[in-house]
Amino acid sequence: MTTLQLKNIVKRYKSQTVLDDLTLDVADGERLVLFGPSGAGKTVLLRLVAGVIEPDEGRVLIGGEDMTDVDAEHRGVGMAFQNFALFPHMSAFDNIASPLTATRSSKEKIAAGVQKVAKLLKIDHVLTHHPKALSNGQKQRTALARALVGSPPLLLLDDPLRNVDAKLRFEMRLELPRLLAAQGATVVYVTQDYKEAMALGDRIAVMAAGRIRQVGTPQEIYNAPADIEIARLFGDPTINLLDVVPQRSGEGVFVELSNVRVRLADYDADVAGKECVLGLRPEAISFADAVAPGAIPVTVEAETPLNEKTVTLALTARGREILVSRPAGTPGPVAGPAHIAVNGTQAFLFDKTSGALLPRADLAAKRSGEAA
Amino acid sequence: MTDTALLIKDVDKFYGPVDYGVHAVKKLNMDVQKGEIIALLGSSGCGKTSTLRMIAGFEAVSRGTISLAGRPVQTLPPVRRNVAMAFEGYSLYPPLTVRENIAFALKASKLSQGVVDEKVAGIAKLLEIEDILGRYPSSISGGQQQRASLGRALIRDASLHLLDEPMGQLEPQLRALLRGRIKHYIKERGLTAILVTHDQTEANALADRIAVMEGGVLQQFDTPQKIKERPANLFTGTFVGEPPMNVFEASVSGSESKVAFGLKDGVRLEYPASDFSHAVRDALVQRQKVVLGIRPYSVRRSADGVTGRVAVNQWLGDQTHIAADFAGGTMVLVEHDRTELDVGQPIGIHLDPSSLHVFDGESGRAISHGQELA
Amino acid sequence: METMSPLERVLRGLALTLVVVFFMFPIFWIFLMSFQTNETILAIPPSIVFSPTLSNYAALITGKLQTAAGTLDIAFMRNLGNSIFLSVASVAVALVLGVPAAYAFARHKFKGSEDIAFTLLSFRFAPPLLVLLPLTQYFQWLGLSNTYFGLIWVYQLICLPLILWIVRGYFEDISADVEYAYRIAGHSWFATFRKIALPLAGPGIAAAGLLAFIFAWNNFVFALVLASADKQPVTVGALAFVTSSGIQYGQIAAAIVLSVTPTLALALYAQRYLVEGLSLGAVKG
Fold first, then answer.
1. B209, B233, B257: which is the final residue of a domain?
2. CATH 3.40.50.300, domain A2-226, yes or no
3. What pLDDT sits at residue A369?
4. Does residue C1 belong to any structural domain of this protein?
5. Which of C109, C180, C184 to mutate to test the interface with A (most CBs of A within 10 A)?
């Protein structure tokens, strides 16, 4: 049974189509992340599920029931907002209690429910405070507590970590999976941060311009992005993209980078001669000795050490920019001439005109073939 | 040979009456050498923006001196300091196109039109704004506005470039590339730059030295590497680094042959005394309460380590973040490969003494980093 | 810059004092006049030193006006009562009608909603004299002239647009997400209006109500034409002091002091809400 089904949803604002014939199923107990750049329509979609805006066309089914024409207050979903949307004139306690007061529960029951979720989110010491007196992190936890307190079977989280600082965001990223697993709810989670999407999603739906472009597990999307745009959205630093025309030799398909052949073992011969874009993730490139086979000469422009990795900007002989990423603490050149090696099995080929990922030879079949 | 581009000496900043108002910057001392990139890093309200504005001349210095290339400037108006600045709020001139905005910075230099055009084209290519040079600020995105604003600051030939949160609004897909290009641009021309940022990733990536500020006080002023390897106190240690440093309160006991840290939940970490220098051992056993810190990418998994239980396993493409329940807290590990670990699974955690940071439990000041005394 | 030199401080203080004196002096002078007889008021040169008298207030309260031509009956206290009743009732009606309407205009953009809202505002553009004659005729046909009901109705021309437009702005400033959050928590739209929108727009509603009250209080023309003596507010009633034997400055001053007092008190009281209204900017998120 699916808990949430969206069927052919269309939403227009004036002449602009914000959601364009969108269909999506979220399974019972699943954590689905809606990921995409701002303006993709993620928030509109979430509000439509919550029932605070209506679709122009299409149906919204929750728990198998058609909820398209049901008012927000009768849908029984929980939602947390990006800007927290706390009630400024109520204490944290009353904020969190609001879903319980609607059901006319007894005072004791409400107090017990609020206490429980507040303890879980470690805000039980600030329940008497008004939002004005709460820190950003506490506001965010209060907003989450309000969404969780009624144990709704469907939980909508609209970029809840957007407005907290990096450290808190990281902590919450580790804490949320545990919280949500304890709830057992079906979750739709909106974010613009690909790391959050990969860390929190059972599946990720990539949205752009009102459409869903790809749905899949984090592995599926990272290892087989449907097109160039999606490949660019996942990964930090961004994937390197180079125009190439693959060729074939006796050994198989290869591309030439600065006159050095890089074999693409996973691709079939039929890509040869096509105008392509080669996608190379920065971590699939490493610095190598000049004498190593397949070493490509480059000039290092700048080294920008991050924390757990070091990113280097290098120029190829033809003046193309390449970003190389390596784990922090491993050796690498800081400036001047150097050589890189490319791992061809981690490379993607995209069609240059359509941008679509060119299909690779079925890896699973190949592996099982090797095993046999 | 380097010479000092900027010298800040005993500078105080009060909002309101001196000695009674809000003390935003406290007795700040800093030097910037010619050709250096410096990052002022801290959370909002730490005094970094006040400092930048004092250097630029938009804010009066309450006490102390600021010298640019040896010349005291704290009483000079901004125009006479030869300082270029990119503002956080972009602050492009709305009636001018992006091209005119960038070229405007060269007005005073009396360069020929040809040279100006060439320079603008160069910086536009660097910042990926060639296609929007003819557009007006109101019709471009926030990220594009920020790049245009950066261009206007970088194109000038100033003795000091001040960049206020220069990349906060940048499109994430462009960030890594532009960081590399901008760093190369600044270094190639030998420019001196100070950037203010709350994003420690940006500070690490761009800066030769980072000035970590908190509560108006300069906490540490050192290279990114030193700050990571030898944080001066618990604040710097936990503020710089992503994921943040793991910290655990501990009690120390020592004998001739070993040093032991007692953590919560009865967890004991024992090391042979030879893992620490004499001085470190002496310093440690004098303390009752310490805080142990270790960076997530320095934590190793090993079968004979202390047992923790996997709570979260998050694969992010090029690395895996694992959080394990450990000694009454959470231990975060970063691994560079995909790790198949199930939630609830026990793992052995090894904390190598060479990557342990020990801080004083009371003052938070660093006692030791690995083998050495802080 | 933020640190001021002593000279700057002195100059700033001086400038502020000048402004205060400029605006406060007339009020202060009227206050003094209300304790003087006509003779001392008209004395040249005027003097601040005089023996104060309560005769002006006494005349207003007893309703007996002593003039050179004898004693006149005036209904000032009744006028004052009328003013209070008319203004309070008008504002109350305008709030009951205007606040829900403002909410509707702020939250539900329907076809023609802007046009309707603008039409309502345009009532404020037309000079009252323009509508006065037809209004008088209508009121006579309908039997509404010289009734409180009729006057309160006409006062809606003044109060309703004001409340509608000011309160609408306050409602629009409340983040829609805050209301959505309450709806999703399981509350009806009416509960959301009552428990979220109304309290958050409270300061704005108070400010609008206060302004409407002042405008209603100060109205002259409608009441002059549409009401007779027993229904007239103070603004019209003050005409009684222009007698055949001269203008009663002392009584006029006392009448002004009495009629200004309620609005002044209200304004001072509501100031709290106005300041609160500004600091509630955080609502916008």
1. B233
2. yes
3. 44
4. no
5. C184
Distance (Å, rounded) from C-alpha A133 to C-alpha C220?
Answer: 48
Q: Answer yes or no: is B79 within a domain.
A: yes
Q: Which of B200, B315, B317 sits opposite A235 (nearest CB)?
A: B317
Indicate if B177 and B272 belong to the same structural domain: no
**Chains in contact with C via at least 3 Cβ–Cβ pairs below 8 Å:** A, B
pLDDT in tens, C83-115: 999 999 999 999 999 999 999 999 988 888 888
Is B60 in CB contact (< 8 Å) with chain C? yes
The residue range of the domain holding C96 is 76-284
Q: Is residue B336 pLDDT above 90, yes or no? A: no
Number of independent structural domains in chain B: 2
Residue B238, in any domain of the structure: no
Domain CATH for C272? 1.10.3720.10
Cβ pair A323:B315 closer than 8 A: no
- Cβ contact B317–A281 (<8 Å): yes
- Domain boundaries, position B345: 246-373
* Nearest CA-CA distance, residue B336 and chain A, Å: 7
Interface test with A, best of B316, B319, B326, B337 (most A CBs within 10 A): B316
Q: Give chain A's length.
A: 372
- Hey, are the CB atoms on A87 and C181 less than 8 Å from each other? yes
3-state SS, chain C, equals: CCCCCHHHHHHHHHHHHHHHHHHHHHHHHHHHHCCCCHHHHHCCCCCCCCCCCCHHHHHHHHCEEEECCEEEECCHHHHHHHHHHHHHHHHHHHHHHHHHHHHHHHHCCCCCHHHHHHHHHHCCCCCHHHHHHHHHHHHHHHCCCCCHHHHHHHHHHHHHHHHHHHHHHHHHHCCHHHHHHHHHCCCCHHHHHHHHHHHHHHHHHHHHHHHHHHHHHHCCHHHHHHCCHHHCCHHHHHHHHEECCEECHHHHHHHHHHHHHHHHHHHHHHHHHHHHHHHHHHHHC
pLDDT tens digits, one per residue of B110-161 = 889 999 999 999 999 999 999 999 999 999 988 899 999 999 999 998 899 9
Give the residue range(s) of CATH 3.40.50.300 domains in chain A.
2-226
Q: What is the pLDDT of residues C10-29, one digit of tens each?
A: 999 999 999 999 999 988 88
Write the pLDDT tens digit of every residue in B56-112. 999 999 999 999 999 999 999 998 898 998 887 668 999 999 999 999 988 878 889
Q: Do C2 and B15 touch (CB under 8 A)?
A: yes
CATH architecture of A233-371: Beta Barrel (2.40)
pLDDT at C71 over 80: no
